[in-house]
């Protein structure tokens, strides 16, 4: 049996339903839906309030749209059509902010203003901003590019226009054919398709409602246009966890989840990758995005380590803390039903594994263990106490590249003697030997000829 075939326990489902019911009541929203995904599929959904279907009712998802736009940009990088360090001007000339880079736009470090000038863009027709000059205004930069993280809706407008310019088709068409259709997200659209929730403003001091307008955002659409469902967003969360070769491979999705911007001052548990928000909550790292538009709020969080994702959608302009709720749903499942480890199985063959390199190694007097991995890579970890450790994948030249931790991006080399035997490991200039300070070993600075001794 695998973890994907194990249903949630009734007690866990009751806790999840209770949490969204409390969220709906305390948040004073006409309806609220939640869903949980595990092992790549939705394993629970629930609703509280006036809603037709927990899993299939559309809600506006606001800025979660940005993550979809980022995926389109990363596809262009994957195909070699642009580089993350490319200036915007190279692919989308004439914006007056062409020196900012693609990576800076993705990570909100381009220094662009947060909002478009003029009337509240989320409640006014996109036709009122027909060109990028209307979106950016006369003062497009709020900070010097590359200096600070400053969330920018206009930055993702530029990224959507960049996708259109490079692809030669509208952003909406690229999104549908390159992301939504391959992932089976048939209920994610740029305009509402029934059944969908109506967006409401709830009076802050009375239990009465006011309908919110639904506007086509025009050029601003890549920053917040989409409608989606709990079921579709669970599919998207599975993609953000594992990737999908039809859209983006695992390595590119991992790049998106890697911190690319510093946390905002005062929020050292938060950060931003390439189109995704990052946070530390309840002792775990969450990846995803929040979203809001008049009449709607949304939250999607994923814990890769726990193999749990959660989605919360509501139809009120303010009140429901959907991001907090989604994080709570992740916590409930992760704590009540911890992830089951994959069954251990011996390899069918071990020819390609570097078995001769496995076992203890010493950096000075620090003891490390090197273990061969099933994928042909190796893992180097301290044998006791804290310390620097990483996994490494094999490179064609016989070296290994660090994948995480302190040695992420560093190269591990095997240094051999003239007779072909292994002398030591070289890791970013650090020397690892089979014995601690063995005379004759290639230890920088040499080893005292007197060897080990007592104090007298």
From TrEMBL:
Pfam families: Beta-lactamase, DUF7586
InterPro entries documented for this protein: AmpC-like, Beta-lactam-related, Beta-lactam/transpept-like, DUF7586
Start and end residues of each DUF7586 domain: 354-434
A molecular-function term among this protein's GO annotations: hydrolase activity
Alphabetic keyword roster: Hydrolase
Organism domain of life: Bacteria
EC number(s) reported in the record: 3.1.1.103
First-tier enzyme category under EC: hydrolase
Domain called Beta-lactamase-related: residue spans: 21-334
Name of protein: Serine hydrolase domain-containing protein
Naturally occurring in which organism (per UniProt): Streptomyces tamarix
């Amino acid at each position: 049996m695998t973890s994907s075939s194990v249903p949630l326990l009734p007690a866990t489902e009751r806790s999840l339903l209770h949490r969204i019911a409390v969220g709906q009541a305390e948040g004073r929203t006409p309806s609220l839906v939640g869903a949980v995904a595990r092992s790549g599929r939705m394993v629970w959904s629930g609703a509280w309030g006036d809603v037709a279907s927990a899993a299939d009712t559309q809600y506006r998802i606001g800025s979660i749209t940005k993550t979809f736009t980022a995926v389109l940009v990363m596809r262009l990088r994957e195909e070699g059509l642009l580089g993350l360090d490319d200036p915007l001007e190279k692919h989308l000339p004439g914006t007056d902010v062409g020196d900012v880079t693609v990576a800076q736009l993705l990570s909100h470090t381009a220094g662009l203003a947060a909002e478009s000038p003029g009337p509240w863009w989320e409640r006014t027709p996109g036709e009122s901003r027909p060109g990028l000059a209307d979106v950016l205004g006369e003062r497009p930069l709020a900070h010097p590019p590359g200096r600070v993280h400053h969330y920018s809706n206009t930055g993702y407008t530029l990224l959507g226009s960049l996708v259109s310019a490079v692809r030669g088709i509208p952003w909406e068409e690229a999104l549908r054919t390159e992301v939504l259709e391959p992932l089976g997200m048939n209920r994610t659209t740029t305009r509402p398709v029934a059944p969908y929730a109506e967006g409401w403003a709830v009076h802050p001091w009375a239990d009465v409602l006011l309908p919110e307008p639904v506007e086509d955002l025009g050029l601003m659409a890549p920053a917040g246009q989409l409608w989606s469902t709990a079921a579709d967003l669970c599919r998207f969360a599975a993609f953000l966890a594992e990737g999908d070769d039809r859209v983006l491979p695992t390595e590119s999705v991992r790049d998106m989840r890697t911190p690319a911007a510093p946390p905002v001052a005062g929020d050292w548990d938060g950060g931003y990758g390439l189109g995704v928000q990052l946070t530390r909550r309840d002792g775990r790292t969450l990846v995803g995005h929040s979203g809001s538009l008049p009449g709607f709020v949304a939250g999607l969080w994923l814990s890769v380590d726990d193999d749990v994702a959660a989605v919360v959608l509501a139809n009120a302009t303010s009140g429901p803390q959907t991001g907090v709720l989604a994080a709570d749903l992740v916590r409930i499942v992760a704590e009540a039903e911890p992830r089951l480890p994959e069954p251990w199985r011996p390899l069918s063959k071990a020819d390609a594994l570097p078995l001769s390199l496995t076992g203890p190694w010493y950096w000075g007097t620090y003891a490390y263990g090197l273990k061969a991995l099933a994928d042909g890579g190796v893992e180097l970890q301290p044998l006791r106490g804290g310390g620097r450790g990483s996994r490494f994948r094999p490179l064609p030249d016989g070296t290994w590249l660090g994948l995480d931790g302190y040695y992420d991006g560093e190269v591990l080399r095997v240094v051999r003697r003239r007779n072909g035997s292994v002398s030591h490991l070289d890791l970013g200039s650090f020397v690892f030997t089979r014995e601690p300070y063995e005379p004759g070993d290639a230890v920088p600075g040499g080893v005292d000829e007197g060897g080990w001794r007592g104090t007298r």
